Amino acid sequence: MRQVVIVAPQFPPSNLTAGQRSRYFAMHLAKFGWRVKVLSVKPAYYEEKPDYELEALLPPDLEVIRTKALSTHPLRLVGDISIRAFCWHYRALCRLVKQEKIDLIYIPIPPNYSAMLGYLIYRKFGIPYAIDYIDPWVHAWPGCEVLLSKAWLTYQLSRILEPLALRYVKLITAVAPGYYAGVLKRYSWIDASRCLAIPYGAEEQDFQYLDTHPRSPYLFNPSDGNLHIVYAGAMLPRAYSALDALFQALLILKKDYPDLAQRLKFHFIGTGSRPTDPASFTVRPLAQRYGLLDIVSENPARIFYLDVLNHLKHAYAVLLLGSSEPHYTPSKVFQAVLSRRPIIALLHTKSTAVGILKETNAGTAVTFDEAKPADRCIDDIAGAIYKTVQHNYSPRDINWKIFSNYSAEAMTQRLAQAFDTFVSTKPCP
Question: 3-state SS string over the chain?
């Protein structure tokens, strides 16, 4: 059996999406011939509160190596945990390579600077490495055009470091093709055959854990007669046009169906600008501007992963809110389907989540793009909400056979096959 080291600075007990994706792969890779070690950071160095219950979701025989990192207390010199842990992770990888036969190093990004570990270890020991793009690295995020701003400096640094990190890469994976499309344009030595899109995948065991460890949701009462619709996750910088269209659709419903609108309760969870700050509202100000605080509530702080799933499970319906960026594919689509609640999705036409919802008959998707932006879809959104609350939903409506193709195990099998193919080939020249 070959051995892979997954570098995941924040691995459970962390709530971050990157850690969850790494957990899915770590749970299933051994079934396909790859023994896993995970290199992470001690939870004492996380900035957010650790979620120790997540450790119950890990395979009991999984080896997780945890290192120190530069602390953010009492002085926060650096926030990015891949920078804070870099020296310790480099030394740990050097020790592992000297002590054992390591066949591959797999590095999910973000956090982006961990990618440089692959380059350094390859140069020193010749150990092949692969990089998983959970988000694009070189990307014009809002604010990066402001000279000498933090966003500008981060963007400039990404343009310097990414080509180094990819110089000897064996394989590039991503949650959707759009996440590595820029890489193929920027670097001539990266061949498209070395790039593979692997969606997040759906992990049924997470919801099964909730079945055996039941708890009540604490942000709303599912038995109060209202129609609780939940959006859980970060509020993306380029998702506000979709949010604005949603709120205008709610105004239509308030006017045309006041009795129905009175029962609608939209909950935005973990949408704050600072994940640990319960006052960092991003949704509430817009809802207030539209006069929708009777319908819309926001819990800005990130809550624990299993609590998120539990609120989805007890919701009347689940809301997916997409970005105006075509490459964006919400990982939340799989959790939404597994919650077995009806789904209302506002997504870019090119988002791969649209196809998943249509294939599996798991929900209603209102799509927008450059030709038809979100503000021209307001009537469609209102209609989708009305249809969802009027429809007699049943989980039996979902095509579970097709959805099984998107399981975390199926996605991990694709990853293992890619490892098998590329680990014995030469890296990019």
Answer: CEEEEEECCCCCCCCCHHHHHHHHHHHHHHHHCEEEEEEEECHHHCCCCCCHHHHHHCCCCCEEEEECCCCCCCCCCCCCHHHHCHHHHHHHHHHHHHHCCCCEEEEEECCHHHHHHHHHHHHHHCCCEEEEECCCCCCCCCCCCCCCCHHHHHHHHHHHHHHHHCCCCCEEEECCHHHCHHHHHHCCCCCHHHEEECCCCECHHHHHHHHHCCCCCCCCCCCCCCEEEEEECCCCCCCHHHHHHHHHHHHHHHHHCHHHHHHEEEEEECCCCCCCCCCCCCCHHHHHHCCCCCCEEEECCCCCHHHHHHHHHHCCEEEEECCCCCCCCCCHHHHHHHCCCCEEEEEECCCHHHHHHHHHCCEEEEEECCCCCHHHCHHHHHHHHHHHHHCCCCHHHCCHHHHHHHEHHHHHHHHHHHHHHHCCCCCCC
Task: Provide the residue-wise pLDDT of the chain in tens; the chain has 429 residues.
Answer: 999 999 999 999 887 777 889 999 999 999 999 999 999 999 999 988 899 999 999 999 999 999 999 999 888 988 999 999 999 999 999 999 999 999 999 999 999 999 999 999 999 999 999 999 998 999 877 777 788 788 888 889 999 999 999 999 999 999 989 899 999 999 999 999 999 999 989 999 999 999 999 999 999 999 999 999 999 999 988 899 999 999 999 999 999 999 999 999 999 999 998 888 899 999 999 999 999 999 999 999 999 999 999 999 999 999 999 988 877 777 889 999 999 999 999 999 999 899 999 999 998 899 999 999 999 999 999 999 999 998 888 899 899 999 999 999 999 999 999 999 988 665 555
Looking at the domain covering 204-406, what would its CATH class be?
A: alpha beta
> Do the domains spanning 2-201+408-422 and 204-406 agree at the CATH topology level?
yes
- Which CATH number does the domain 2-201+408-422 belong to among 3.40.605.10, 3.20.20.140, 3.30.499.10, 3.40.50.2000? 3.40.50.2000
